[in-house]
Amino acid sequence: MNCYDCHATDGAAVTAVAVCHGCSSGLCPAHLRVTRPELHRPNGVGAAHGHARVRRVWCVTCYAAQASGMPVASAV
Hints:
By secondary structure, the protein is an alpha+beta fold. It has helices at 4-10, 60-67; strands spanning 18-19, 26-27, 32-35, 38-41, 49-53, 56-59.
C-alpha cells in the first residue's frame, strides 16, 4: 500500500507504514500524526476504572478536523 497524501500531491509512490484511524488512508511517516488519548472503561454506575493510554494514527486532514473539535467518522 502507498501513502495517499504523497500520491495526491505529487504522484509519488511512497510506501505506507500506517493507516488513518479516521479515513483508513495509507500513510507514510511524513504524513501521519499520532495522538495518545486516555481510554476509560466504565464500570457500571460510579467511577470509571482501567484508564489506559492508547495510540491513534491520523492523516493530516483527519488530525486537523479532530483537533478542531469536529467529529471524525471512524472507519473502525
